[in-house]
Amino acid sequence: MRGSADGVASDRSAMSNGGVAVDKGVDFANYFCTYAFLYHQKEMLSDRVRMDAYYNAVFGNKHHFTGKTVLDVGTGSGILAIWAGQAGARKVYAVEATKMSEHARELVKANNLEDVIEVIEGSIEDVTLPEKVDVIISEWMGYFLLRESMFDSVICARDRWLKPTGVMYPSHARMWLAPIRTGLGDQKMRDYEGSMDDWFGFMDETKTYYGVDMSVLTKPFSEEQKKYYLQTSLWNNLHPNQVVGTAAVIKEIDCLTVTVIDILNVRASISSSITTEETRLCGFAGWFDVHFRGSKENPAQHEIELTTAPSEDHGTHWGQQVFLLHPPIEISEGDDMIVNFSMNRTKENHRLMEVELSCEIRKPSGKLLPPFKNKYSIE
């Protein structure tokens, strides 16, 4: 989930997901059309952490915008384009794939910026601009940063339209992982067990009343329910005291130089130390932050950070992605962990992700706990 969308409304296929053909018509129906609704835009425009970061980044660094040309990739409601115009941009190209472009055009007009901002409905992969731009601004981040794969479109825009001296907003991004405690795992296990109890009741009734034995389907039903309840990551806004060990960066991104190949697979081996006395390791949480630093040649005057880390009072609509363990593991302060993490795009839908996570825990005595490995989906 994020604040705007850029895509394509044609039926042609595109190459994405590491060279796998993607049907653009299906992609539009499954993904882009979601952002054509004002209620969805309102949800993200109400995220004060998100809004404040972009607002402060633009107006705290007017030197990047005054008299400059700007491209807003996936303009959505048009608010980033409007801020760029208000900050003094000479010209802003606001590209939007969905009919939200019509609302953006009206909003631009209502804010007296129609002479500066040109709203273009279409895919950034397909549109042609009359000039190169000095700044590319976009709010492309999905759950755990890379879900939705919209960053592909931003990279495409950068490679096609950004001047060699241009800057990216945001300019950098990082992905984090940390061990956590939470009651979500217990709840999800109860949900799974309840679904199986319901299945057995259904199976008995079908045999009694209709003479059909459904037991052969018990295993695939169980696997289906396990994936839904136990192997799908969860969205949650965690409190900082739910983080029970040190957090580690699993991916760093320079938006000015990164390629699509660089983000197809995220792999990391990290270490973490438990910092909480006698608790349960219930899973891991992933979050991200992005930074507005400009570039080495043209740095920001005021660097801004937007973080989705666990917070006491400033959660975001992104929250954190929670990867649960079943059952939890008893841990204590001083335990050391080696965590191997990998994340890939699913074969069925390049906008969704598959995660594999394994861990070894060593006690201060040197004793190793049995290692574990789990798979999850980010849907």
Strand-helix topology:
Blueprint: E1 13-16, E2 20-23, H1 24-30, H2 38-45, H3 48-59, E3 69-73, H4 79-86, E4 91-96, H5 100-110, E5 117-121, E6 133-137, H6 151-161, E7 162-169, E8 172-180, H7 184-210, H8 218-229, E9 234-236, E10 248-254, H9 260-264, E11 265-273, E12 279-294, E13 299-307, E14 320-331, E15 336-345, E16 353-362, E17 372-378
Parallel strand pairs: 3-4, 3-6, 4-5, 6-7
Antiparallel strand pairs: 1-2, 8-10, 8-12, 9-14, 11-15, 12-13, 12-14, 15-16, 16-17
Protein name: Protein arginine N-methyltransferase PRMT10
EC number: 2.1.1.319
Organism: Actinidia chinensis var. chinensis
Walk me through this protein's architecture.
The protein is 27% helix and 34% strand. The protein has 379 residues and is an alpha+beta fold. The strands form 4 sheets. Strands 8, 9, 10, 12, 13 and 14 form a 6-stranded antiparallel beta sheet that branches. Helix 7 (184-210) runs antiparallel to helix 8 (218-229). 42% of the residues are buried.
